[in-house]
Write a structure and sequence with these properties.
Layout lengths: L2 H8 L5 H23 L10 H22 L17 H20 L1 H15 L5 H22 L14
Helix pairs in contact: 2-3, 4-5, 5-6
Length: 164
Amino acid sequence: MTPSDQTKRSTPKVDLTDVTTLGVLAALSAIAFFMAGQYGDDTPSGGNVFPQLASGVVCVTACVSLIQRLRGKSPNTSASDEDIKITWKPVSVALLTFGFLVLLPIIGYPLLAPLWLAAVMWIFGMRSVWILGFVSIGLSALAWILLSRLAFAPPPAGLFERFL
């Protein structure tokens, strides 16, 4: 093995697109974090806790990924681009999520959220009707309580507006 071959093998390959994307994501999320800190309202949480929490998590994750990428650790690259195929599961979840977001103001969270969660769990292999029902209704109710009580931002009630 010649010294030039050894240098070629020891030098990590850094993909400029990945590094640029992660850098931009880290910068934008850091900006969003500081912008969220500038705003507040009269709610107990100040109205900026959840935006700061979300943007902070994104910033930390992007920075960790960027550091790993710059150190030469890359994601799983065992499959070539020709081997990667789009399956029906992520496409159907994306379509369900898009439909959920479009119909949310019309039909409302109390009916759509449990149906969406049950459908996503069924797509990924959960076939027990009892688990589908309990988990989807329980998580939807928990999210409603957290959003309306802690974040003071209840999801749209839609058809259930007069009951809630």
